Amino acid sequence: xxxxxxxxxxxxxxxxxxxxxxxxxxxxxPEYRRLAASEFSSVTAENAMKWESLxxxxxxxxxxxADQLVEFAKRNRQSxxxxxxxxxxxxxxxxxxxxxxxxISKQELRELLRRHITTVVNRYKGKIWQWDVVxxxxxxxxxxxxxxHYKGFWAQNLGPDYIADAFRWARAADPRALLxxxxxxIEAFGSGNPADDKSQFVHDMVKGLLAQGVPIxxxxxxxxxGTQYGNYDTLQVTAALKRFAALGVATAxxxxxxxxxxxxxxxxxxxxxxxxxxxxxxxxxxxxxxxVRSCLSYTVWGFSDRHSWxxxxxxxxxxxxxxxxxxxxQPKRAYHELKSDLIxx
Length: 345
Ligand code: G3I
Prior knowledge:
Elements: H1 4-9, E1 14-19, H2 21-24, H3 30-38, E2 42-45, H4 51-54, H5 64-75, E3 79-86, H6 93-100, H7 106-123, E4 130-135, H8 152-158, H9 161-173, E5 178-183, H10 195-211, E6 218-221, E7 224-226, H11 234-245, E8 250-261, H12 273-291, E9 295-300, H13 309-313, E10 319-320, H14 333-344
Helix pairs in contact: 7-9, 11-12, 12-14
The chain binds ligand G3I.
């Protein structure tokens, strides 16, 4: 049978996965490596390219894990989505501590960011297909204030201009990589609920940046969904992508998973309606991506429940079952659904 990756390429669509380097290197877990290599046409580092991973000690870059992933991709003829150059999470402790105690000034911080982007993009020049340049810069309706705004460490310390700067620095370092703005809760438009506002905000932000000549090539929609929120609507998800595409940029689903609450016994039974709801949501995003020409890739945020960020993060109530293979690497309904979407598109 053909892999998701191979089926995707029939439609010029890359189907990718985030890769957990510890799992990839676990000699007792060969199936992880086998599936990561064979089933996908694109890979993303789940953590290995984040600033805290790359420069744990000021001035000393540790490239081992990130290099390994880039090599792995090359060996398996996969494209690489670089993740992530500018984010407020997983920053090195020396950086956040230095800003907090005032030993790193605003001016120095901006220079550190410029150097970081330049160093990382330059190292992988020509080897990265898409870079997530700026990640999650926009607040959510449940934040304070509830009016959408630029949130987090970078906006607080440098002001929103860091976004334009980051794209310019990335472009200068590798003119051929596609530069993405990446965020969550922008997957659908037209529901009338507050998620529309964030999609609109990101749309307007990118429009404004493009008007200023900022080199931004794509908008990444993460796709962290949950069955407890009901099923996404194909028309609304397609609408969100089309509105982004109408700005003249590429689009992608960059971190798709669909979690469920694990409160009942028998959670892993095939008859579980959550498996069906999960499959339906995975499929809605895939159908939308297939329907919009600008949608270049569909990446799952981990492919097996054996290695997923979800159980670690959501424990009250516990959540899981968020990926397309179960803990024993058996493909779930979602996997088969994605395949049939790709076959019958
Ligand atoms: O580095 C330590 C390691 O030394 C230690 O052994 C281990 C034990 O728990 O923890 C390790 O750090 C963890 C790291 O993942 C690597 O496994 C962190 O505690 C944990 O917080 C971190 O979680 C990651 C999360 O981003 C943190 O922000 C998840 O794996 C990763 O899937 C998640 O990915 C993000 C995307 O980058 C952006 N969009 C949202 C998405 C989900 O949160």
